[in-house]
Amino acid sequence: MKTELEVPSHQIPDYKRKFGAVFTPIKWANKLVEKHFYQDWLNGATVLDPTAGEGVFLKAFLNTAIKHGIELTEERIGRLYGVELNPDFVGNFYKSISKEYSIEWPRDNFIQGDIFFLEKELKADILIGNPPWVNFSDLDETYKEKTKHLFSHFGLVKSQKDLLLGNARTDIATLVLAKVLHSNLGENGKAIFFIPLSIFQNDGANAEFRNYNIRGVDFAVEDILDFNGEKIFEDILGRYGVAHFQRDKKQSFPIKYHVLKNQKWVTHHAKPLFNLTDPLTVFENSETESRLDNFQKIEFPKYCQPRQGLNTCGANDIFFFTSYEIIDEEKVKLKNKLGDTIFVSKKYVFPLTISSTLKKDNPKPEKLVLVPHFDTGKPIDLATLQQDKDLFNYLSKYESVLKNRKGVLINVWLNKGFWWALMGVGPYSFASHKVMWKAFGDSTFSPKILEPNNYFGSWQGNQSLNAYMGVTSLNEADRVLKKLTDPIIQEYLSSLRMQGTCNWAQPGRMKKLMEFT
């Protein structure tokens, strides 16, 4: 049976990039249909794939019927529906249906359109499919404008402004799920979708979906299949799985969470540990569940809150330096990646962590960062900047580049005239000692004390790669480190199944374990 795309090859990458199209292998479509919904369809249920691509899930119903010797009657075929945005894929579907199955598909049952903007809503007893996998921030600009109001309409953000902040990472798949569970699934209907697991495992962006209610309509996640790194889709590096939903049912926990290990499904329990909208914690066994259920938050002073490293907002080549020369007690010569040099007061220069910094007992600065801020965290004012002629001339050379940086938060400083400002800078940035850990891409939580460098002072974390808690003395750093080495922290982070991702131990995730007094 032919399953390759018939869309012109030059169009496929562009469409995938703009709309997050991910095509399901036919064998997995067959498996899901046969296991979950095939019998319901035979018994009279209607089926809709709201983002159908080339109709692989609809074909899976036909394949399963043929496998079991069931006749493909007009009535049975007439209960299968699909909607697809790309007209080429719709055309390919009709061609392949005629060629592969020698049947004529009802023209009203597989239509070209956008599931968000159909003139007439389709409703079905069963939804099945594989919605687009792309963040709102990565969408095609025109489509972003067209759909952004829907995120607030379906309660995925509190306001459209949130889409410009952290919730810009909200998945378009989440919006598809919210819309179709609310508007296209019949009362007490069932649904099953391939999904990026970030919907249930990431902090922040998809949290509002985890209220499990869309504009007054309850829905429940019955269980989740986690492929655990198994290569199902081409060119997809993120974590993905399958979620099974039930409409008009209150969510209850724990749910069954199946993990593919050595080609076998192993069943665990999962639930949010602290609040309903928290990411799912997956318990390896009952002992882990008991320990985490009885976890008491760790107390820290309020000023010790976890922080991310500083952020240049796309201007690393201007603020980061890999070559330097100490001139005297006050001045240092820096050379950036672009080949420019600057003589600057050391009070604005700090050692910057790199990937190997936390692995060494006595790390030496291999990269430096220019921080034109007061120790209050506020950017230095223009008069102060102009007092240091070399610093002013250096930054002025890049003024237009720095003024053109994008982002809601950096725009606050740009609009006030502080075009040399960085993000993620506060009094905590200048704390002499830092207890720091790798927040990105790790699997072991290994915090370490970074003492100030004798010449440059306190270490600075590098954007989202590192997180830290700033303190004022070695004794206090020792106390903080002792609390952070509680094995329950590693157990908690591992239970979230974010090992190796950008959401391993970010500050927001760590704060859930802490109480600040």
Structure report:
Helices cover 29% and strands 22% of the residues. It is α/β, with parallel strands linked by helices and 517 residues long. It folds into 2 domains: 12-287, Vaccinia Virus protein VP39 (Rossmann fold), CATH 3.40.50; 307-516, no CATH class. Strands 1, 2, 3, 4, 5, 6, 7, 8, 9, 10 and 11 form an 11-stranded mixed β-sheet that branches. A 5-stranded antiparallel β-sheet has the order 16-15-14-18-17. Strands 13-21-19-20 form a 4-stranded antiparallel β-sheet. A hairpin with a 2-residue loop joins strand 6 and strand 7. Residues 1-20 have low confidence and may be disordered.
Rg over CA atoms = 27 Å
Mean of pLDDT: 90
CATH class of the largest domain: Alpha Beta
So what's the oligomer here?
single chain
Please give the domain count: 2
Got a strand count? Answer: 22
| CATH superfamily grouping of the largest domain | Vaccinia Virus protein VP39
Count every helix, treating DSSP H or I runs of 4 or more residues as helices: 17
Give the uncertain stretches in residue-range form.
Answer: 1-20
* C-alpha termini separation: 65 Å
- Look at the helices and sheets and give the structural class: alpha/beta
What would you say the CATH architecture of the largest domain is?
A: 3-Layer(aba) Sandwich
Query: Sheet bearing the most strands, described?
Result: 11 strands, mixed
Gross geometry: elongated
Q: Give the DSSP E fraction (strand runs of 2 or more residues).
A: 15-25%
